[in-house]
Amino acid sequence: MATILDIGLFESFNTIFPVLLVFALVFAILQKTSMLGKDKNTLNAFIAILIAFLVLLSKTVINVVNYMTPWFVIVLIFTILLLLLYQTLGVTDKSIGDFVTNDSTVKWAIFGIGAVILLAALGNELGQNIGPYLSGEVPANVTEGGVATSDFSQNITATLFHPKILGLIFLFTIAIFAVAFLSGDTAPSK
Length: 190
Prior knowledge:
single chain
């Protein structure tokens, strides 16, 4: 029996929602930036439709968008709740708007959160097939697939694409940005 809570019916729309989302985002960006000129609504809509149809051709892009969308919604809900909390403490809308538009740390944080979500989506979708020397199979034992082969370039590539090394690079990147933001100029700009 079909109920309101049965979301299995939406599985058939799994490819339509990302296409509509890409169309809406591309059209909004083209309208806001006036990249193709002012009052070019038809041209902006045509280009947005073309890009949305190109997304429709790639199952990988559709899966990446399907993975990213719920995470961005969670971040948006968290941000709205955080702004409501600030407003209950007496912060005005104007001061929040000024802080968001003038502080570069907020822009970098938004960029960083988006990049982490994008990398997680790409890792989820591409997973085991990302490197040229990695097979599409998940080994039963993690210690298998060592780097004790006679081919030096294969050993280097397998080492660099190892999940522990990639995780270490990711942690170092986070540490570098944390040190850069914490040691930056904290004096207000005049």
